[in-house]
Amino acid sequence: MSAAMQLVGVVAVTVAVAGWLAPVAEASYDADQNKSSTNFLFRGNLPVTDNHTFAKEALVARMQQLAAEQNLTFPETFYFVDLSLLDPFEVADAEVEIKYFKEHPNEGEYINWLTVGDVVHPEELPVEARLALARNLSHWQMDKLPQRMGAIDALLNSTTVHGPIVAYIHCEAGMDRTGEMSGSYYMHALNWTFHQALAYDDSIETRNISIYSQNAFQWYCYFLSVTYQPWQDCSLP
Ligand SMILES: *[C@@H]1O[C@H](CO)[C@@H](O)[C@H](O)[C@H]1NC(C)=O
Ligand SMILES: *[C@@H]1O[C@H](CO)[C@@H](O)[C@H](O)[C@H]1NC(C)=O
Ligand SMILES: *[C@@H]1O[C@H](CO)[C@@H](O)[C@H](O)[C@H]1NC(C)=O
Ligand SMILES: *[C@@H]1O[C@H](CO)[C@@H](O)[C@H](O)[C@H]1NC(C)=O
Ligand SMILES: *[C@@H]1O[C@H](CO)[C@@H](O)[C@H](O)[C@H]1NC(C)=O
Ligand SMILES: *[C@@H]1O[C@H](CO)[C@@H](O)[C@H](O)[C@H]1NC(C)=O
Ligand SMILES: *[C@@H]1O[C@H](CO)[C@@H](O)[C@H](O)[C@H]1NC(C)=O
């Protein structure tokens, strides 16, 4: 039985970006599902406090608030999947999260998906070359967006002995790598157009997504356009 309702919201945990708010997008909803065992997916920035501790309280408070705004019941007990997109240069921040889950293994786990974006802008290439590369994206893209989307689906379709899953996608600022991964998910799972997903990313962030993250996100759109979403318009708006 899949836990079919997914929630995509923005959680800001640091003082610097505490003003962030964004609407919560809802995926599918299975009426048979016990709402209290629903899995959730959120996005945001680095969940580390100024005191260099894991910002679990602030995160959960914000998640509860976002769920309540959508009339959803946030689970009292859950398994937290910390989907970090940090790179090896950000090890000091990652260590805080890794240490937390090492000390609280029943509360969840830390997963690291190195996410660096793409240097090549897909629209710079001739159409034939672009589409050939798009078809083969899962073989060459560093960020492995096609595989990552499958992994997020599998995650959101599972539950644990510790309860439903609350997954949190984040990088440092919650804008570029997080926008790339989340934006890809909006297209893949919520059936948003590339233009909608990009506009949403740019609207909830304090600045536009970086070009490398945008390239990777756009490559993923071209991948969708040659696979199961042939109607996608992947050109920049
Ligand atoms: C839903 O799940 C909760 C917690 O596991 C349980 O207490 C409750 O009885 C369930 N409700 C239904 C309708 O299955
Ligand atoms: C940091 O620690 C100080 C002293 O314990 C405390 O007063 C403060 O609230 C903490 N700040 C955060 C963001 O946790
Ligand atoms: C939540 O419920 C309230 C009261 O029934 C309703 O006014 C509101 O539109 C609902 N919000 C959403 C996002 O469904
Ligand atoms: C797909 O990419 C891989 C890795 O770069 C390469 O070895 C393979 O030849 C490519 N396949 C096609 C059909 O282009
Ligand atoms: C997850 O569940 C959805 C529907 O609930 C289904 O369409 C999808 O194929 C499932 N994905 C995986 C990876 O199991
Ligand atoms: C996804 O969106 C496209 C275009 O907006 C639409 O044609 C298609 O029917 C939608 N697919 C689903 C499964 O809702
Ligand atoms: C962000 O992107 C939008 C749409 O692509 C554009 O209209 C806007 O000027 C950009 N904003 C900044 C600050 O670059």
Automatic annotation (TrEMBL):
Keyword Nucleotide-binding: no
Keywords in alphabetical order: Signal
Record Gene3D superfamilies: Protein tyrosine phosphatase superfamily
Cleavable signal peptide: 1-27
This protein's record includes keyword Signal: yes
UniProt protein name: Tyrosine specific protein phosphatases domain-containing protein
Native species: Monosiga brevicollis
